[in-house]
Automatic annotation (TrEMBL):
Organism classification: Bacteria, Pseudomonadati, Pseudomonadota, Gammaproteobacteria, Moraxellales
Organism: Acinetobacter tandoii
A Pfam entry, by short name: HTH_23
This protein's name: Helix-turn-helix domain-containing protein
Length: 52
């Protein structure tokens, strides 16, 4: 019984962690999508320049 309770609690914790993680990811995606794309473009350019 104790092991089953532990397993259930860990499952709940994992679910909570996943939901908060997905919320954080959605928030980050909404806020900094343009920033991320700008950074990707900059890093892509710098990589291309570095290879030239």
């Amino acid at each position: 019984m104790h092991a089953a309770n532990k397993w259930c609690l860990s499952l709940i914790n994992i679910r909570l962690g996943l939901s908060t993680l997905s919320k954080a990811l959605l928030l980050a995606k909404g806020i900094s999508y343009t920033n991320i794309s700008k950074e990707l473009n900059v890093s892509r350019r710098s990589v291309i320049n570095w290879y030239k």
